[in-house]
Amino acid sequence: MLPGLIALVAGCAPLATRPDPPPQAARELPARWAQALPAAAATDAKAQRDWWQGFDDAQLPALVDEALAHNLELRAAASNLARARALRELSAATQQPSLGLGASAGRSRSAGRSVNSLRASLDASWEADLFGANDAALAAAAADVDTAAAMLQATRLAVAAETGLAYLQWQDARAQRAAAAASLDSQQQTLALVQLRERSGLAGGLEAEQARSAVQGLQARLAALQHTQAQAANALALLTGRNPAQAAELLERAQQRPAAQAVRAPALPALPQPAQLLQRRFDLQAAQHRIESQLATLAQREAERKPTLRLSGNLGLQAATWSALGGSGALLAGLAAAIDWTLLDGGAGQARVQAQQAALEAARIDWKAAVLAATRDVEDALSALASARQREDALAQAVGAADEALRLARIGFDAGLTDFLNLLDAERSALAAAESLVGARTDLAGSHIRLYKALGGGWSRPDPDARSTRP
Predict the structure, then answer these.
(1) Residue 14 has what pLDDT?
(2) Long-range contacts, stretch 330-335, CB < 8 angstroms, 24+ apart
(3) Residue 40: predicted pLDDT
(4) What are the backbone angles phi and psi of residue 216, rounded to the nearest 5°?
(5) What are phi and psi of 336, to 5 degrees?
(6) How far is 22 from 227, CA to CA, in rounded Å?
């Protein structure tokens, strides 16, 4: 009778409607990049994945390793992954039969007569997944695990990139401070010379005030650069999960690098095509897994509107005394089946399905937006990379010309052939050109980092351990 009842229930309700599959990346991504690709160089797979190892700076890999080991956002992402895995195990456990042991002892008195009751039982129950609600819940939980794993790797990439960019900013401020300090020393010598000429009657008070103003302006510039460098150090402290004093210790070795020596980025390998972004960028993978989770949840909501079947049974012993529990008459056994089917719920079930359909559509829209943002990131990084290279080449020539102009202006001023304003303009131009070149080289290295980040942290073959729990 029970199998027939199950068949009757299964035939009364239609099967759950399966939504359309999630969109494919190839349909959403362009065939090629709009920006021209840089010349490719041969690099190994590990250098592409761990891009910070390729920069000609010994301290950058150490800082990135510290950030990957101690960053609080990364640790939180790892905790989210552990939570998602535990919830997946919880969802899987609900599909298994439950088994429990019980024992009770009681004594009652009625009409002057006392009665003892002793009982020991073994109870079991199981809910049949007739329409796949439990399977859908497990699939949704598994997709949530994949989402959390992808977000962990996306966070790892973001932390590494932000650490690299903060370190470049710190080095940039340090290099600009060195250039400004050298210019300040030169202008202090000029001020001393102008003051000597003023006392000798060879220069007026205007020139002395202009020289003094230039010195004070550079002193203010040095104070601002010191603040910028401190901000970058504080950013590194936050990224590495340390306080500013501890971060200063990490940067002590970096102080040994000459301030004027810019951080050079490695040569780029051949870049992947846009359609490969989904395989490289973990944020796009996470968005795809969110769609899978919403699809499975929708199937679960539809299946929940169908009847449920629960089987239960018990096996026990009951008697008035301990010795009687072992007798043949003490054995109790039972088997039951229950079917629940909500026929009228005021439209609550349908509303839950509609709400989940809207959540699925939102996840699909978020996925498309993430794809567009990913292509924009790559295009912006390619454009910035090309611009930074052109700026560096032009500014390198400008620095040479400005230094030569300053040398000639100083010779002419010392010989009395040119006035002080020409010398002051030459000094300002030389300082501006030197600072611009430092900034261009920093931008060039930063553009490499942003391009690595935009392309998913490298474009070698996917790492088989890329979805491990280790940050």
Answers:
(1) 38
(2) 332/121, 335/311
(3) 63
(4) -65, -35
(5) -140, 150
(6) 49
Q: Which two tokens stand for residue 422?
A: 């020409």
Question: Could you give the strand order of the β-sheet that contains 331-340, starting from the edge strand earlier in sequence?
Answer: 98-110, 113-128, 308-319, 331-340
CA angle centred on 170, ends 166 and 173, rounded to 5°: 135
Question: Six-digit token pair at 440?
Answer: 């261009």
Q: Quick one: pLDDT band at residue 70, thresholds 50, 70, 90?
A: very high
Q: Are 398 and 433 in contact (CB under 8 A)?
A: yes
In CATH, the architecture of 27-99+115-454 is Up-down Bundle (1.20)
- Confidence (pLDDT) at 261: 64
Q: Residues near 333 by Cβ (< 8 Å), separated by ≥ 6?
A: 313, 314, 315, 316
In which band, very low, low, confident or very high, does the pLDDT at 425 lie, cut at 50, 70 and 90?
A: confident
Burial 283-312 (b: 16+ CB within 10 A, else e): bbbbbbbbbbbbbbbbbbbbbbbbbbbebb
CB-based contacts of 235, cutoff 8 Å, min separation 6: 162, 166, 169
Residue with tokens 């949704």: 140
**Which of the four pLDDT bands, split at 50, 70 and 90, describes residue 234?**
very high
Residue type, 343: L
Distance CA 129, CA 364 (A): 28
The per-residue b/e assignment along 84-118, b for 16 or more CB within 10 angstroms, e otherwise, is bbeebeebeeeeeeeeeeeeeeeeeeeeeeeeeeb
DSSP string, 142-167: HHHHHHHHHHHHHHHHHHHHHHHHHH
Q: What is the mean pLDDT of the chain?
A: 80
* Chain segment 333-353, per-residue pLDDT in tens: 788 888 888 888 888 889 999
Return the H-helix or E-strand segment holding 111: none
pTM, 2 dp: 0.79
